[in-house]
Amino acid sequence: MTPVRRRTLEILLETHRAMGAYEVLDRLAEDGFGRQPPVAYRALEFLVEHGLAHRLQRLNAFAACLHPGEEHAPVFLICRKCDKVAETSAPAVRNTLHDAAGEMGFTVERATIEALGLCPVCAEGRE
Amino acid sequence: MTPVRRRTLEILLETHRAMGAYEVLDRLAEDGFGRQPPVAYRALEFLVEHGLAHRLQRLNAFAACLHPGEEHAPVFLICRKCDKVAETSAPAVRNTLHDAAGEMGFTVERATIEALGLCPVCAEGRE
DNA sequence: CTTGACTTGTTATTACATAACATGAGAAGA
DNA sequence: TCTTCTCATGTTATGTAATAACAAGTCAAG
Which residues bind Zn(2+) per the record (chains A, B) (predicted)? Predict the structure, then answer.
């Protein structure tokens, strides 16, 4: 865990939002780190590899992992209003997925499960 | 259903692979349609909106819908070797997802479930 | 002290996606 | 028939996301 990587994780944790790589990069640059895309991408890649962050495909964004270390099957609930990301664990979902794939002879190595919708807060207010 | 849209769908069906928008665009151009990105993106957007195709976030790509018309909860099995996409339906997965989200007060509007792995064919041969 | 693995940084380029505007065809209504 | 509206298609230009390829510094093992 190096300074850039630590700072990147801190940024993700502080905002608690789905963040684009370039958004992260801007913050890193403010703190004196490099201003080039690979700086952010490499740090984020590292965090993802080590289970400290996740990549959200739908938004082309990243979010800090809320359950690092634990063996978990993350499911993301992304609010389309405020971009906040709730991460929940639903082993049953994963199991069903693996079973269904297995029936077709397909070997699942990695899975992405993302739900887009409204969080409780935004659902209360007017849309 | 217009010529561009029809041709776009045909292309997706013919290849039966996850295709990037620019890949689709090249084929459309060969057939005399426009060469600019919006041509492909609009046609693909239309197909997705009308349930004739799906967008695969992990690959930034698109694939024809194999069960158009049916009310379905698609789950994608993407082979990382040959890029072929198998689309299966796993209502149980969706149900579990909706339930888990509901417990947290989250309203699911759309969900993306994609599995990356090896298809039976590629799993047989050497990786 | 030197080799090798690794991290960070750079420049440059590629890939993906959309904004904004112009044109033309076809339907709906005066 | 003519006008108007809608919508599909096409364009130019730009914005956003991601990676390739290389240079330089650190640090531990031998």
Answer: 79, 82, 119, 122
The reply to whether B96 Cβ lies less than 7 angstroms from strand C is: no
Does B119 belong to an annotated binding site?
yes
B85 vs B95: CA distance, rounded Å: 23
List the pLDDT tens digit at each of the 127 positions of chain B. Answer: 899 999 999 999 998 888 899 999 999 999 999 999 999 999 999 998 888 888 888 777 888 777 766 656 688 888 888 888 888 877 888 888 888 899 999 998 888 888 888 899 988 864 4
DSSP lists the bridge partners of residue A88 as: A75
- Contacts of residue A66, Cβ cutoff 8 Å, sequence gap at least 6: A87
Distance CA B31 to C1' D10 in A: 15
Instruction: Sort out which chain B residues have CB atoms less than 8 A from A110's CB and list them.
Output: 115-117
